[in-house]
Amino acid sequence: MVCRRCGYAFYGKMARGRVGGGRTAAYGYYRCLGTDGHRFGGVAPCDNRSVRSDCLELAVWNEIRALLEDPQRLAAEYRRRLNELHQGGDDRGQAVVLDRQIEGLRRGMGRLLDSYVEGVIDRDAFQPRIAGLKERLARMTAQRQALTEAAEAERSLALVIGRMEDFAAKVHRRLDELDWLGTREIIRRAMAETG
Ligand SMILES: [Zn+2]
């Protein structure tokens, strides 16, 4: 849980006070770290309200349940983020083309170096050309690396979704009968499954 107003985490606390019916009892709530003045030299950067733990936990649980009931929602969100990182297109085709270009650049650098060593071109001609080739090589290598990372992200996404679906199928029927500890265990495991 992160505070929308200031970005600090919320943390759980217990307190004693009047609850429904006027009797005194212990109750839990979550509070934004940013509202604790003593943590920030006396001046709290945030004045967001605390939230009763039963309300907040129910909201979190409803999110987890929705996820367990429809793991494809998680998949859709991951895909949306992946698409933001790269504009889609024919990644595999692009990778083949880039590999060829990188190979060509390396050969070109080799030939240029030979020409320099053999005295065909002098230092003044050699240096700017090798620098230009190096720069292009670095650019292409970075593009190639990005393609590899996108492919890996796509693969690990498929794994996560598969695990999530298995997990959801296993726990689905029990969701209505869970007690507090059972609920907490499901949330922990759901977090672990999605990494
Ligand atoms: Zn805050």
Features:
single chain, 195 residues, mainly alpha, 3-stranded antiparallel β-sheet, 5 helices, binds zinc ion
Question: Structural class of the helices, strands and pairings?
Answer: mainly alpha
In oligomeric terms, what are we looking at?
single chain
Count of discrete structural domains: 2
Ligand set: zinc ion
**Terminal CA distance:** 17 Å
Verbal overview:
The chain has 195 residues and is mainly alpha-helical. The chain folds into two domains: 49 residues, no CATH class; 125 residues. It has five helices and three strands; from the N terminus they run E-E-E-H-H-H-H-H. A three-stranded antiparallel beta sheet has the order 1-2-3. Strand 1 and strand 2 form a beta hairpin. The two termini are 17 Å apart. It binds zinc ion. Zinc ion binds next to loops.
Itemize the secondary structure elements and their pairings.
Blueprint: E1 10-18, E2 24-32, E3 51-52, H1 53-69, H2 71-85, H3 91-117, H4 123-171, H5 180-193
Antiparallel strand pairs: 1-2, 2-3
Helix pairs in contact: 1-2, 2-4, 3-4
Zinc ion binds near residues 8, 32 and 46.
Provide a short characterization of the protein structure:
It contains five helices and three strands.
